[in-house]
Amino acid sequence: MFGKETYINRRKKLAASVSDGIIVFLGNNESPANYSDNTYIFRQDSSFLYYFGLDKPSLAAVMDIDSGGEMIFGDDVDMDDIIWMGPQKSISDQAAEVGVGKTYPFGRLAQFVSEAIAKGRRVHYLPQYRFDNQILLGEITGKGVRNVNEGKSEELIRAVVAQRLVKEPCEIVEIDRACDLGYAMHYTAMMLMRPGMTEQELVGAMEGVVISGGYMTAFPTILSQHGETLHNHLHDKVLQTGKLCVIDAGAEIASHYCSDFTRTLPVGGKFDGRQKDIYTIVSTANSFAAEMSRPGITYREVHLATCRLMLQGLWNVGLVKGDIDEALALGVQGLFMPHGLGHNMGLDVHDMENLGENYVGYDPGQERSRQLGLGSLRMARSLVPGHVITDEPGIYFIPALIEQWKAEGKFSDFVNYAALESYYDFGGIRLEDDLLITNSGCRRLGQKRLPITVEEVETAMAR
Predict the structure, then answer these.
(1) Which of 392, 393, 412 lies closest to 402, judged by CA?
(2) Residue-wise DSSP of 314-352
(3) Across 140-241, where does the E strand assignment appear?
(4) pLDDT digits over 141-182, tens only?
(5) Collapsing DSSP states into helix, strand and coil, what is residue 443?
């Protein structure tokens, strides 16, 4: 938790961006794993954390835009809670730590919102992603669970996105810390990977680093020798010499700021000639994207320029043919990279995407493409200092997709389908770093960059 003034100032800025009415923020509740007393690790709602800082379940908060009032709703613990958890701070004491002077029992929230609605006041809230909060908000607003998210406040969404997209110095410190832990997580994999161990053994070692030094993983770890599957969470295979292993993993520290790195490692510690060719295309693209990223350029432009560079690399090895610029315009690159170059990152590893990807990642007037790959670009905005984004180009050989395009005769003037047949067992390569946009360009977050060139990776793994 940051100092009290941080939260006070954030709420003042938000209040100045919303016209009138009240804003309702729901915190998250404990979520049962398999019975009510055995819960998943608690994770507070990120927007509640951002504005109110309290990392406890079963809280809500209201900002009254018209009067300037602020209040937190929650229940003090009873003796049964104290027996099991020990003494706890009162809700009023917790609220005072983040600059809120009024508190009420949680049950008063429904009454407060109902009274505001009865007076014809606007009730602003963000879209809810947890069913219990959808049910609660549907009940207290009278909209019902099925329609509650249709009543979300676009004005509030845009105000929150504008504020949270540009990271404060205190946030950047935390993200750097999360990246340092993410570095340790990935470097552990480089040191421990060996043929014969299972993927799950490596996952366990990596996640142990995060749990011992942070809060939890930022998302379920992706570690697989089938890198052509973009988000493969199966970890049941034995590591085999000659295979490529994609590791996409991140750390979330106690303040809940995240990191998100990807490296692709050769099982056995050495790339073969074909792997070096494709890997070098991707590692060059990763560095190229960082060099391009600066204030004033859109990340859509960076995505497209990076894709062009990769198409040229694939042309050089005989997998793509024809005019590169024409291929880029048509979307040929989607066959090899069916995802976007990156996304925003902060308190959420995909920052604020529960509020709507287009609100978060697209400027007003920017239209989302329908092309495979470009259409999945989560961050297309014009970059400004304070943006934190991922830089994650990749090349994948997905047999089913290649066969489909081939059967349809799709882009046969640009894709060498005959040459691609020998790559059906290749897998995929993705390389990801986290970037902070600065006044003059960008910098990579964290004290050190993970090994990324062929030579750096092979040297690290040889240790």
Answers:
(1) 412
(2) HHHTTSB-S-HHHHHHHTGGGGT--S-S--B-SSSSSTT
(3) 216-217, 222-224
(4) 999 999 999 999 999 999 999 999 999 999 999 999 999 999
(5) strand
Structure tokens at 247: 């590791």
Query: Do residues 384 and 344 touch, judged by C-beta distance below 8 A?
Result: no
Please give the Cα distance from 181 to 221 (Å, whole number): 14
Two structure tokens written together for 83: 């027996």
In words, the CATH class of domain 169-462 is alpha beta
For helices 299-316 and 273-292, the axis angle rounded to 10 degrees is 160
Long-range pairs for 451-455 at CB < 8 Å and ≥24 separation?
451/190, 451/263, 452/263, 452/283, 452/286, 452/287, 453/280, 453/283, 454/271, 454/276, 454/279, 454/280, 454/283
- The label of the residue with tokens 């990763």 reads 286
CATH of domain 4-165: 3.40.350.10
Helix (H, G, I), strand (E, B) or coil at 389: strand
In the chain, what are the domain boundaries?
4-165, 169-462
Work out the angle between the directed axes of helices 454-462 and 273-292 (0-180°, nearest 10): 120
The number of beta carbons lying within 10 Å of the beta carbon of residue 185 is 27
What residue has token string 């990223």? 293
Token pair recorded at residue 406: 């081939």
Token readout for 77 is 């613990």
- Rounded to two decimals, what is the model's pTM? 0.97
Q: Which two tokens stand for residue 14?
A: 């938000």
- Per-residue pLDDT of 404-427, as tens digits, reads 999 999 999 999 999 999 999 999
Query: Can you give the C-alpha Rg of the chain in angstroms?
Result: 24
